[in-house]
Design brief:
single chain, 5 helices
Length: 158
Amino acid sequence: MVMKKNTILYILLAFLIIANGFFLVNYLGRPGKPDGQKGPGDFIVKELNFDASQMERFHLLNEDHRLKMKAVFENERHLKDELFNKISEKSMDETIDSITTLIGNNAKLKDVTTFYFFKNIEKICNDQQKKQLDKLINGALRREGRPSGNPPPPRKQH
C-alpha cells in the first residue's frame, strides 16, 4: 500500500516537473528578437533613424494606437463569441447577418486606425524618412498573407 502511494507521488512529481519545464521553455525561455528589438515600433524607430524628439512623439503615437487597437480587438473577440454562441439556435439569419456586418465594420475600423497611425508617423518624419516609411509600408503590404520567404507575385504592367 505504501509502495502504491509513493509510485503515484513520483508520477505526479514527474508530471509537475515536465509541466513546469514546458512552461519555462515556452513562456519564459523564448529568445529575444534580433538587435534587442521589442516589436514593430522599435523596428520603425530604427529603420527611420528617429532623433530623440521624433522618438518621443512616436512613442506617444504608438501607445495611443495600441490602446485603440486593443479596444478594437476586444470588440472583435466579443462579436465573434456572440456569433458562435448562436450555433445552437434555430432561427438566426437576421442575427447572424447583423453580427457579421458588425464584424466587418470592426475589420474596417482596424484598417482605418492603422492607416491613420502611419499617417501620423509620416507627419513626424523628415523628407528622407518619409521615403523610407513608404518603402517599409509597401514592403509589408506585399508580404502580408504570404509565407515568409515567398517572393511577391509579379506586378502586371499596364
